[in-house]
């Protein structure tokens, strides 16, 4: 048997958890654990269990709880009675907090002995014991004080672990964890010190100094102090390029990167009431597809997360969690074509290895899962067709699917096991209330408890909100809470879930009516957002308020349990809460108020996305946006990495914004938001999202007779079709785009269409026709005076001429392109043109010039950074030129560098280059 307290207080025996339902019983066990193997006086326990105000019956209640606890224990944990009190005898290692302390002590010893590698492993194992805040479900003052002390030791151990990883030269491995750590603990200077060191060791000196400025400003703003001596000295050492800061030589390159095991579960509830039989049946289903079905608010997600956390040790390759949004405030659900690339990426499949077709992606997912033991939690499914492509096949991986529908087709096709989640029984509902409100209040008013349970119809969501209300009013009798529920139910229109047995409007209105006027308005406006979550800046834009005021109101909504800050700076709520908020907005806010708020929100994502799109690609012309409305707070786009992170985070939101704009008459913004997504969706392989958003954009442009929007959407639908090898669709859309642009007399736009036609024809090997369109694009760009387009067309014409063996013509085009790119300061284009010229010199046999020009291209790509594939392609070509020139050592060096990059990218061309590296000299 073991006791786990580094999280909720739990008893485990032979892999099975023994539920400790009563709060007083958990509190007693927690107090005894804190003094394990020592006598705890009876009067001390009474005082601490009742926080200094014990009732006359306290001693008798204590003795009853001791008796109940003793029955739960075994020989590893013995609870003995002594004259003055009680002692909990625990064998070494039986309590997780003891194992944690011992492991940390062992790690210190290993570090002193010079075995830092083993210390890192020991500390990692120690930190994995933590499942959340220590004693998370015990509210006793003494226990909370000890929990705070334990929390400090946890963070000390975390910092020791991260420092040890850095001391081994593994700064890349530590960077991600350090960034998360300082985000969660921004006032711990040691974390910042380690992060800044890791950034410097990774060659990111400017970023390291920027982090120092951030922590300095943070400490000044929050505490009114300067950074400590260690941080100040670290800044000076970085400025002086102190060699002692350099990582240990050669340690990191020789270390194979560890695959990150996904652990994506949301935070589980502290105590799951009832469901014991259902949990037992779920324990028997590992390796199968399991369906949890039931009405809205019935607790399907809560149960799924609880069970997944309970059995996480059985899935060593990770647990993935995704909300499929089958039922929610909008009609847009997560389609398999949108989710499959994300699932594969999360399982470690490089993006370049993800095929474009949904069927192939689904097959690849089954192949990956067949070799692993992972759990997919697919929440809120719409129907069986949505789920089928996402399910594992043969092997030890499992899937847990929740839905409001029965999905019986999966029972037939995938041998799925279906479990119906029912309303809580009266006893289980009372247990849920007791876990939130306390046993004493429940026992004191059984009639009021019965009224509360009846009023909530056994619906877990409703019960949880009722309990939260009662817990926030500890001086209120439960009868008053029950009476308030009855009064509100009579005075409001019904807001019902699908089974019509639970009136959630009354319950939700408690929290809403307690809000300040400004917070209530923000809550209503959040119902207009497409979800699944929203950032601080987007919420500020939606409301038209500044960031500071919006943050304050979001905190108020979070405190009132109407919102959840599930990750720092991002907020979400249950779909029923969003529906409720939207209904309140329709009831209380005029049409023009809601329409204007939606416009500000769309403007936020459009302004932010446009800035991001221009950072992602220098090949596109910016589009002309209407001025942002007052109150819009766009997200700043700093660099390529941050921009990609923003698009990744807002991916689903942006898809919803495209639909929202179309359905609310913002037709120009609709196609423009879709325009901002093109490069991101292309880079990430979200082909179907690309097609879907452009179709919505095209319809919006047609509806408003926006010819330019139509032409643009047709062109990008053609680009998507080209990627998906749908050449007939590509030609059709390009023809329609070209016709519209001719009507608009848009010469440069026509040039881009001809570039698109050239690309489609090139993909078919139709080089001559492709070249003709490339030359036509060149003529059009020159006629329009579009110099960047002209440079791109020159380079395209040069490359196509080289493919046809017309090397003189290719050389002329390539030199013109290079000169124009250089004049325009377009480094990326100049790198591409230099590569074309290097290829031409190589084919003509001028190997010295080929080496020189390839090297120039490579230098440019390296200086730009971020475009690693083209850097690898340049190294590969440079290696070929060195090889043909007889410099085999230089060739092999270039190929090896190219291979290293291609392996990092997981690119299929790696095998071709690997054959060169492994081939015989000469």
Automatic annotation (TrEMBL):
Q: Where are the TPR repeats?
A: 831-864
Matching Gene3D superfamilies: P-loop containing nucleotide triphosphate hydrolases, Tetratricopeptide repeat domain, Winged helix-like DNA-binding domain superfamily/Winged helix DNA-binding domain
Q: Which residues form the OmpR/PhoB-type domain?
A: 1-90
Q: Which UniProt keywords apply?
A: DNA-binding, TPR repeat, Transcription, Transcription regulation
Record-linked Pfam families: BTAD, NB-ARC, TPR_12, Trans_reg_C
What SUPFAM superfamilies would the database entry show? C-terminal effector domain of the bipartite response regulators, P-loop containing nucleoside triphosphate hydrolases, TPR-like
Q: Which residues bind DNA?
A: 1-90
Task: Tell me the protein family, please.
Answer: Belongs to the AfsR/DnrI/RedD regulatory family.
What PANTHER family does the record point to?
TRANSCRIPTIONAL REGULATOR REDD, TRANSCRIPTIONAL REGULATOR REDD-RELATED
- Report the protein name in the record: BTAD domain-containing putative transcriptional regulator
UniProt source species: Tenggerimyces flavus
